[in-house]
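A further point concerns the way the authors explain their paired sequence and structure data. For illustration, here is how one protein appears when written out as sequence plus structure tokens:
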Amino acid sequence: MSVSHTTQVARARTLRLGGVSAVAFLALSAYVLVAGDAPKLLGISWVAFTAMAGAAAVGARTTSDHPTALVWGYGLASGAMVTSAAAFLLPQAIGYAAKPGGFGVAAGILTGFGAHTIGHRLSHLDLPLDRTTAELSAHSLAAGSIIGVVYTAMPDLGPLLGLAIVSHKGPAGYAAARRLVRNGRSPAMLLLPAAGVGIAALAVTVVSFPTDPTFRAVVFGFAAGIFLHVAMDFLPHCETGSDVHDAVTRSDHDHDHGRLDSLRQQAVLSTAIGAVAVATAWLLLQ
């Protein structure tokens, strides 16, 4: 079997999975809407889907790279995620049971690192699916599962936490779509990871979880660790190999170091603004 034929099969499978996942997401959404059990989760799921799918559509139609847009998209999202995990998840974990909560945080960070590292290893394998889509889908399903568990365990949580956690879906979808288009692939593949958060989060609502404080401490700690790792991974780095650096290289072949220095300053500013936005929203909603 030729490499080109294998690639075509992978693309076709991914597109089919994308269509199936979109239908599954719609069906789950309709079920939850009729049941009326998890309106916050339903809203968060649709925000995640719309953000990634919409940004992917924009990225697919963009003819030139915009490193500044990537810096601000990633920076605002990662700043919001770090602040949300530290302010909303960590206190819950420690409040239920300090030591188990701490172990949960450690497990979440290490699990995130392990999944990320293994994801890069997959790039050397002949996968039956498009690699970029597979990695994003795995991340979306994991994030959705944890969001579903957290909101099922504590339905009184406000939507701010969930919205901050899925805030990176927009810039991630934009960057992934640009990458797929450059490689001659269809951005429609991103329907799978776009729907993944909602599929996992809404599916979790039908499961009953223990109410033991230790269990909740570990769950909230693990969620905090996972999202802290994801937030750190989405920080807008400008070093060689990053999405931002690659975008600058493609749009400016002279490799202007002054432009990179300016983007680094904007990276710091954007993350700070993302953090302040979450803190301000929390104060206003008190």
